[in-house]
Amino acid sequence: RRATTLPGLAAMKAADEKIVMVTAYDYPSALAAEAAGVDVVLVGDSGAMTVLGHSSTVGVTVAEMLVLAGAVRRGLSTPLLVVDLPFGSYETSDEQAVATAVRFVKEAGADAVKLEGGGAMSVSRVRAIIAAGIPVMGHVGLTPQTATALGGYRAQGRTAVAARRIAQEARALEEAGCFSIVLEAVPSEVADAIMPWLGAVVIGIGAGPGTDGQVLVFHDLLGMSSGGSARFVKTYADLGAQMADGVRRYADDVRAGTYPGPEHCYPIEPAELAAFLA
Ligand code: KIV
Ligand code: NA
């Protein structure tokens, strides 16, 4: 397999080849993404919830995201590695946004960064980061960092006015230079209508089958998320239950005295043992 490049993604879009993106937050999830042959890996700020236990994405820090991203980098060789700029790390100024993006590239080995929103602030940050030489992925529709302002974790673009605004935001991000845009939680008809307006690679999550690719959260698709999941999630494994079951059987063995068995114990020469015990 050849490493994913930005021209490679554009070529996949042109050839109508679906692009596969998944999140990862540590070395083993990165190895799973690598082994599965996905095209793009996102160190999402969803890690705030999936691996750090926060109830929203806003609490995760740059320092924490750097740790997660570095671990993912060490597990990947072929997928493009995109890292989310966490809430509070890019809103203040273009300079702040560039400084944060540079840290993810320099300290964690990110190939690109992603930030949320398609309004004037986000568009300005996108231009500044791209001017500094770092590719940027946009994200419109349901943007979890500002979910409170959007009325919660709910589908977006369900009125004509709201759908038009999402289309305009996506266009503005593309004009600012985003190589790709995530479209989250919008009716598939709205996504389909926006697609012809966009030259950038569109990755959908809860946006129907018509986008250039799909992204899902690692823990959601493998059944490792606590609580209910969104309508768009499809679960491909039940790893949460399998993990709990494994730990439970270990605990049972320890309590029953059946672990460790002889095969888990180290030998010692009888003469050495006798001398030790003497
Ligand atoms: O943080 C994340 O996991 C994301 C994807 C769902 C697009 O932003
Ligand atoms: Na995110």
Question: What does this entry show, briefly?
Answer:
The chain has 11 helices and 8 strands.
In the CATH scheme, the class of the largest domain would be Alpha Beta
Question: What would the CATH topology of the largest domain be?
Answer: TIM Barrel
Secondary structure class reads: alpha/beta
What about the largest sheet? 8 strands, parallel, barrel
* Tally of distinct domains: 2
Estimate the helix proportion, in percent: 40-55%
**The CATH superfamily title of the largest domain:** Phosphoenolpyruvate-binding domains
Shape verdict: elongated
Main location: cytoplasm
Organism: Tessaracoccus rhinocerotis
Protein name: 3-methyl-2-oxobutanoate hydroxymethyltransferase
Subunit structure: Homodecamer; pentamer of dimers.
How would you characterize the overall build of this protein?
The protein is an alpha/beta fold. The protein has two domains: 232 residues, Alpha-Beta Barrel (TIM Barrel), CATH 3.20.20; 35 residues, no CATH class. It contains eleven helices and eight strands. Strands 1-2-3-4-5-6-7-8 form an eight-stranded parallel beta barrel, surrounded by six helices. β4, α6 and β5 form a beta-alpha-beta unit. The radius of gyration is 22 Å and the shape is elongated. The structure holds 3-methyl-2-oxobutanoic acid and sodium ion (NA). The site of sodium ion has 4 residues, from loops. One of its GO terms (biological process) is methylation. One of its GO terms (molecular function) is magnesium ion binding. Its cofactor is Mg(2+). Keywords: Cytoplasm, Magnesium, Metal-binding, Methyltransferase, Pantothenate biosynthesis, Transferase. Pathway: Cofactor biosynthesis; (R)-pantothenate biosynthesis; (R)-pantoate from 3-methyl-2-oxobutanoate: step 1/2.
